[in-house]
Amino acid sequence: EVQLVESGGGLVQPGGSLRLSCAASGFTFSNYHMNWVRQAPGKGLEWVSFISSSSSSTIYYADSVKGRFTISRDNAKNLLFLQMDSLRDEDTAVYYCANGGSFGKWGQGTLVTVSS
Amino acid sequence: QSVLTQPPSASGTPGQRVTISCSGSSSNIGSNTVNWYQQVPGTAPKLLIYSNNQRPSGVPDRFSGSKSGTSASLAISGLQSEDEADYYCAAWGDSLNTYWVFGGGTKLTVL
């Protein structure tokens, strides 16, 4: 069974940093592109970042996070990461990891709250 | 303001057929396939339709998708109470610095 489990969320002050992780199991992680998608409280879905499968050769970011967030992966450990720096109030959201080019499977999400 | 436009709400009675629209442009829906996601309140989104009209394994055939030009639609036939959820469309955007774009979501109420 495919499982994606996010962790690392929490409360952080504006300007601070946080590193999210997504542990994958039940599929060949290295064969899949991966994404981060977020959802602000009471709002819709917003795509955040994409990383290509085995060689991480292709990475994309939404304009809203470019220059502040960094996506990476460790295929040996089946882990996806999102390093979030210079956090702003508007980054407050549940962050989901999702696999594949069509976001075929999603994790349960991890809540990031940016507040002073 | 979402790049893809969906009606904020839709409703129907059990057994009815409802459709949800998703409007985009030539740089997203017009040139790429559309996916649909279902999100029951308090849970993670779930892929419902991919590549305009394909259902992942386990998705009932009551759910169907279509695309024409720069618009797409999700149809749900034989509406059931458990279909009450938020529905989102998504497509790849071909514009500079625009990648995946989502609709604002449609809240479906089963009356």
Question: Could you explain the architecture of this structure?
Answer:
The complex is a heterodimer of chains A (116) and B (111). With 116 residues, chain A is mainly beta. In chain A, 0% of the residues lie in helices and 50% in strands. In chain A, the strands form 2 sheets. In chain A, strands 2, 4, 5, 6, 9, 10 and 11 form a 7-stranded mixed beta sheet that branches. Chain A has a 4-stranded antiparallel beta sheet with strand order 1-3-8-7, with no helix packed on it. The radius of gyration of chain A is 13 Å and the shape is globular. Chain B has 111 residues and is an all-beta fold. Chain B is built from no helices and 9 strands. In chain B, strand 5 (63-68) and strand 6 form a beta hairpin. Chain B starts with 8 loop residues before the first strand and ends with a strand. The mean pLDDT of chain B is 95. Classes of the chains: A mainly beta (116), B mainly beta (111). At the A-B interface, strand 5 and strand 10 of A face strand 3, strand 7 and strand 8 of B.
Task: Please render the helix and strand layout as text.
The complex is a heterodimer of chains A (116) and B (111).
Chain A (H helix, E strand, L loop, with lengths): L2 E5 L2 E3 L5 E8 L8 E6 L5 E7 L7 E3 L7 E6 L4 E6 L8 E7 L5 E2 L3 E5 L2
Parallel strand pairs in A: 2-11
Antiparallel strand pairs in A: 1-3, 3-8, 4-5, 4-9, 5-6, 7-8, 9-10, 9-11
Chain B lengths: L8 E4 L5 E6 L10 E6 L6 E4 L13 E6 L2 E6 L8 E8 L7 E3 L3 E5 L1
Parallel strand pairs in B: 1-9
Antiparallel strand pairs in B: 2-6, 3-4, 3-7, 5-6, 7-8, 7-9
Number of separate helices of chain A: 0
How many H/I helical runs of chain B? Answer: 0
> Largest sheet of chain B, described in full?
6 strands, mixed
- Note the gap between the termini of chain B: 28 Å
Radius of gyration of chain A: 13 Å
Strand content of chain B: 35-45%
Q: From the alpha-carbon coordinates, what is the Rg of chain B to the nearest angstrom?
A: 13 Å
Q: How far apart are the first and last residues' alpha carbons of chain A, in Å?
A: 40 Å
Q: Helix proportion of residues of chain A, in percent?
A: under 10%
Q: Quick check: average pLDDT of chain B? A: 95
